[in-house]
Each structure stands twice: as structure tokens, then as C-alpha cells.
User: Fold this.
Amino acid sequence: MQTTFPRLMLEHARQRPDAPALREKAYGIWQTTTWTELAKLVEALACGLHQAGLQRGEHLVVIGANRPRLYASMLAAQSLGAIPVPLYQDAVGAECVFPINNAEVRFVVVEDQEQVDKMLEIREQCPQLAQIYFDDPRGLRNYDEPGLQSLDALVAAGQAHAAEHPGRYQQEVEQGQPDDVAAMFFTSGTTGQPKGVVHTHRTLIDRADVGARFDRLTPADEVLAYMPPAWIGQNIFSYAQWLVAGYVVNCPESGGTVTIDMKEVGPTYYFAPPRVFEGLLTSVMIRMEDAGSLKRRLFHHFMDVARRVGPALMDGKSVGLADRLNYRLGDWLVYGPLRNNLGMSRVRVAYTAGEAIGPDLFSFYRSIGINLKQLYGSTETAVFVCLQPDNEARADTVGVPCEGVEIKLSETGEILVKSPGLLKGYYKNPKATEEVLTADGWYHTSDAGFIDASGHLKIIDRVKDVGRLMGGTFDGAMFAPKYVENKLKFFSFIKEVVAFGDKREKVCVMVNIDFDAVGNWAERRNLSYAGYTDLAQKTEVYELIRDCVEKVNADLSRDALLAGSQISRFLVLHKELDADDGELTRTNKVRRGFIGDRYAALVQALYAGRTEQYIETQVKFEDGRTGSVSATLKIADAKTFAPVKAAA
Assistant:
């Protein structure tokens, strides 16, 4: 599509002036912004920013949740040829310093007082930061800081400027070209400073259009935008595809009301990482365990029917009449109410990406009539590399290459991608750009995988993380930490896992329990506990986790390639891994190297054969205070299995 995001917005306003573009829930009531109202708001913001001095090619940082006026601010910047840079709203101030200085940012648009405070806190470290605009004025009445201004004031100034210079806004929009830079997204920085991924209007719009056509998205579709806008996955689904397909984006009132808001909106197009689907299912199963015996029996009976029949029906396969009737009864009694309770009654297409999803979890959603599929992509590829067709959704693949994409494997098994959606480069980092982009246009994904016989892509792990065991029973065997971690995370009792084993004689893991799931499990067994640390070290909890570990080991023993990745020893950590403590990225990916260094004493104890180890860890609280958590952690052994030889 030879166009830009502001032109797409203006085209929707011309064709469907009174159709809803955005909805926002405020004070319990859904407020609608039409395409015409959006166009007027964007023009006012653009004229206000132009008058304030925002230049073509300059960067504008946007920090906050999904809010209509923050989306409009991004469109306003793009209308002027400036480049919006969304940052994570839950990042601490120190994490914003590098992106703001790296991109030489003078203008910031933020959501509320929390983000204003963050910007004021780092202002001395970012001397070029001149203007801070805020959307929500609550708590900011008595602030008196140079350059601090409300978006209301910016809109008013822009409206006055537009009245004095009619046609100026349209001229700015017309100057924009498809190959102009449209946005910059900072990577999560698992191994160092984040890198600014530069994308043009052409790359983002091309991939958004391909995805929209693949799933037949129309203006009648609805999405709920609740993930961070700084994550390119959310940005593609609620910004790029929104402007391409023209559907309605709904912004929840807050993170705490997402479940309620989802039921009210009834989205038709839904996207979430596996941990969200896991959380939803865990809450369902916890409620089910607390239900009466009749309800439990009814639920388990029809879920058995769903597991046997549902995926085949979802894939359009033939099913016997008795099974079909039984499933229809189950849909009336169980699956329909369950979809409604999850807010997924109207979901036509649901995607998950970012991490592997457990086969049982994947099958559960498809079995109750939710068209859950997987996709593969990254910030650098504008998301869409592989997609699963409706009748070919499988838990162990990430789909087939989508339109315009070529895939090949390097000699090391690394996946290489050629696509119209590839990044223009890393901002101010030509060396890093050269490392991932070849002269003939192939992108190094850093993922190891292969194409199976049906043409679907399978991911094993990150290339740099795939290692080998040295010594011991499985000497020389392949070790894929993420693969092992994901298999354990498929259990509802386990939230996070960190696996070690490269260049060692065996595999050991550190586990984070899911506090809600394990807490509910403990309460049903009258097992008392004082908090996370106490619960995590209960002997009964260790037996529960050991059972999960040994089930994974039995499964791995049947995999000729990864039988050596079986887990020999494990411990349950005394605290949850946290992005604020540097243990996770802002997209909740484990920073394995950092954790290995931080908990070196635990790693050493695992491999030294100890049965317990004392640890004291400094933690950072949400209000900025620091404290410490200490405990003596148990270390347990797990049974491993001899590799199962494939039948001749």
C-alpha cells in the first residue's frame, strides 16, 4: 500500500465520518471517538506540536497505557514527519534515560501524574527534554515546572494555529512518503542496552495489511487494547492494523478492569501472550474447584467431550452425529457460558505469540470453540513472518510463511527471513544492523528451528542459548534451555523457570511457582502458609513441582534430539522474578545471564549436590523503596529416564 498512517486515518474519516474509531472507558462509561473527531483531534495536536517546534525527522516519546489521545499524539507526530517512540509505562525512570538520550528527544507525551513524575525525576540526566505534555490532569494542579503542559492546552493552541493557517496540516501530511520512518521501538534488552528498531510506514503497513487480509479483518471487527503500546505486538494489532482495516479499538479503564471490559466489549479479534491465556485458564480451574459437586461433574464430563471432539470441529473435520450432538449440548451448558465468562463469546480470531504455548492449554481454547492460533515474528520483522491458517492450527508449530516472506536455515540451524516488513536498521547502531541484516536482504532471527514436512515452522530455542552437556550421563547431548523452561511452564502451578546446563554435566532449574494456583491448591489441602516465601518452601509444594519436573523428563526422554535436556535437580525460588529487579525484561522474558550471576550461590549449590542453600536478595518495591528477602532454599533431585529408542 503506497500510503502513510495519517493518510489512512484521513481516508477512514472521509469514507466513514461517523463510524467509531476508538472507545475509551472512563468512570465506568464507554466514550466513543468517531473517525471525524479523531481527524480533528490529530490536526489540532499536530498544529500544536508544529507551533511548539517539533521538526520533521525528530523523535517524540509517548509513555502510557492505550489511550485515544496518546494514539492521536502518535498520528500527529507522523503527520508532521516526526517519529513516535512508545516506551513501557511500567519502566522505572532510569530505564527511560537511554532511549530518550539516544533518540535526542525534546518532546514527551505521557498519560498521567505517575509518568510526569518519572520524567521530572530524570530531567537532569536528559537536559534536552524541553516539553512534557500530559493527558490525565489528576494530581497535577499544583505542579509548576518549565515545559510541563496539558494536552488540552496543546489542543487549544493547535486549534488556534490551524485557524490562522488553513491547509497547513494537509500540506504536512502530503509531504509524508511511504519510505519515511514511521516509528521506532526499543527492544527489551535481554543482553545489554536496548536497541532502537527503525520502521517505515511501508514496512509496518505492508505487514499489517498482509495480516488483515489473511484473517479477513473488516471495519466490523473489534479489539481490546490492553497490552503495552511500546510492545510492537500490541502496536501492530491496535495501531497499524487498526488504521489499515478500520476496525474499532477499545481502551480499557485500567489494567484491573480488563476482564470486565472484555466481557462488555466482546472483541472479535484478540491477541495475548501465552501467560495471559494461562492466567485466564488458571482462574477458571480455581473457580471450578470451588464449585459444587454437580457443576464440577458436569464441567469435567463435557470438557472430556470437548477435548475429544472440539479441535476436529474447529479444523472443519468430519465428526460422528452422536459426538456432534453431545458437543452441541456441551456448548449450550458449558462451553458457551465459559466463553462468555472469558469475554470471548464473539472472538473470531485469537492469536498468541512471544513464547511457546502448552499443547493442553492450546487444545483447551480450541476445544471450547475459540479459534486460537499462533504466529511468529519479532520487533525487527514488524511481527508477521509466519501465521497459522484457520484449519492448520497446531501447538508445536508457529505456522507457515505469510505473503511476501521467504525463510531459509543457516548451517547452524538459525532461521533467516526475507520480508517486506524488515527493519530499516537499528538507530545509531550500524554495527548491530550489519550483524542481523545481510547485504542481500536476509535477517538473522537468532532463533533455531526447522520447517517440518507440512511446511510449518518449528522453533527450538535461541541459537546462542542452544548448548551441549559435558560429562555425565548425557555427555555431548544438545541442551535447549528455553524449550525445557517452556515445557515446565505449561503446568499451571509453574509461572517462571530458569534452566542451566550448557557445558555442565547435567541440567538444573530454578522455579517460580504461580502463587494463585499453588495457593489455591494448598488451601484445598488445608496447608497453611504465611506468604510466597513460606509457601514456596513447603515440602508438599516441592513434591508437587517434582511431579511436574518428572513428567517433563519422561516426555523429553522420548525426544531423540533433546533427551539429554532432562532435569536432574531443581529448587523453588523464594521470590517471584521481577522486571523491576532486572530479572525479567519489560516483555517478561527471562534474563538468564543476569539471573545466573545474581543467584550464583544457588547455581553453585545445585551443581555441588547440596540439599539446601541460604540466600538473601535485595528487592525493589513499586514505590521505589528497597528491601531484602531471605530464606534457606531446599534443593531436590528429580528422576531422569533412559532415552526411548524410536521403533524401527
User: Anything to note?
Assistant: The chain has a mean pLDDT of 92. The domain at 5-271 is CATH 3.40.50.12780 (Rossmann fold). Residues 377 and 383 are 4 Å apart (CA to CA). DSSP finds 21 helices and 29 strands in the chain.
